Amino acid sequence: MLGALFFQCLACVYSGWFLAVGLAVFLPTLLYLRRDRARELWAYVRANRRRVAGVLALWGFAMLALFGPYILVNLGVSRTYADCHNLFPTPAAWVTAPAGTRWHQTLDAVRHPEPFECMLFSGLGLYALFFAACVHLPLVPRASRPAVWPVAAASLFTALVWVLLTLTTSQEGESLWRIVRLIPGGGAIRVVTRVYVIVYLFGTIGILLWLQWLLDRVPQPATRTAVLVPLLALLAWEQTGFEQESFERRDFYPYVEQIADELRGAEAGYVVPRYVDGKEKVSVGPYGEVFAMWAGMRANVPVLNGYSGRGPRDFLSTPALFPTRTIIMNPPYGRAVLAERGFSAEEIERLIEAGVALTEIRKA
C-alpha cells in the first residue's frame, strides 16, 4: 500500500494527496469495524518492530526525496482559500457532466452552469447504486453481515466523508475545506473538485462489494445474469457521448521535433503554447501547453509550461496561459531560452542582448 501511495504521488500530487487522506479515513474506519483484526494487526507490529520500522523509514525517505525539492522551492508560498474559488465541488458540480454525455442536456435545465473543472457527474445509475448501498448496508443485521461488509461500509463512509468535507453551496462560499486544507500538503491543492478521484474510487469499491454480496445470495445463474447485464449496460451507456479532443500524429510530432531542436542545449525554456496543424487548426491554451510540454520532453529541457501552475518567485514574469508573453530567468537560475516556431535559440539570445522588450520577441 505504501508503495502504491508513493507511485501515485509521483504520478500526480493531486491524486496522491487525495489518496493519502482518503486512506486516512478508510483504514481507521475499517479497523474500528473489525476490532478483532485491529488487535491482530497491533500484535503483528509489536512482534515485527524492526521490520515495520524499516519499511516505514524506507517509505518516508522515498517521500522526502520526492517532495523535498518542491518543499524547499515553495517555502513561504501556499495557495489561499480564495484560489479555490470556482473550483469547488458544489451540489451543481456533482450533477454536471461534459457536453455530449447522455444526461447533460436534461440536467442542464435544473442546475447552474459550472466551470470547466467542475463536471463531476458520472451517471444516475452509479448514484442510484451508491444511495442504495448506503441505505441497505446499515440495515443488515449484525449476525447476517458477510465478510466483505466492513470493507464495503468503510469504503462508502470514506466517500461520503470526503463529499461533505469539500462540499460548498456556491463556488465562492464557505466549506469545511477551509480547515481541511491545513492538513500537510493541502495548501498545494487548488482544484478541490479533484476529490472525485477518491469519492469514485472508494464509492465504487463499496458498491461492487455490496453488489457482489447481493448477487451471491441469488442461487440461479440465469437470474444473476438477468440483473447484471441490464445494469452494466446502463452504466456503460451513461459514459458514452462525450467526444475527446484529438489530433493527427502527422500534424503534431513533427512540429514538436522542430521546437525541440531549438530548445536543445538550454538549461530551461518556455515554449509559446500555440501551434497550427495541417488543417490550419490553431491550438492554444491547454492543448498548446501539451504541445509545449512534449517539446520540452523531446529536448530533455525543463520548460515553464503546463496547464495552470506558477513560476518561482524570482522569475521576471510567468506565461501561465497567455500565449504572447515570454520569459527569461534571472541570473541565479541560469540561462533560459524562449522557443517559438520561426526563431532559433541564437536569434532569441541576440534579441534579448540587444534590449528588445520581452513581449516583443515573437513573430509578426
What does this protein structure show overall?
With 364 residues, the protein is mainly alpha-helical. The chain has 13 helices and 4 strands. The protein has a two-stranded parallel sheet with strand order 1-4. It has a two-stranded antiparallel sheet with strand order 2-3. The protein starts with a helix and ends in an 11-residue tail after the last helix. The model is unreliable at 316-336 and 355-364 (pLDDT under 50).
Fold blueprint:
Layout: H1 2-11, H2 13-33, H3 35-47, H4 49-73, H5 104-108, H6 124-136, H7 149-166, H8 177-180, H9 196-216, H10 221-238, H11 253-263, E1 268-271, E2 275-276, E3 282-283, H12 285-299, E4 336-339, H13 345-353
Parallel strand pairs: 1-4
Antiparallel strand pairs: 2-3
Helix pairs in contact: 1-2, 1-4, 2-3, 2-7, 6-9, 7-9, 11-12
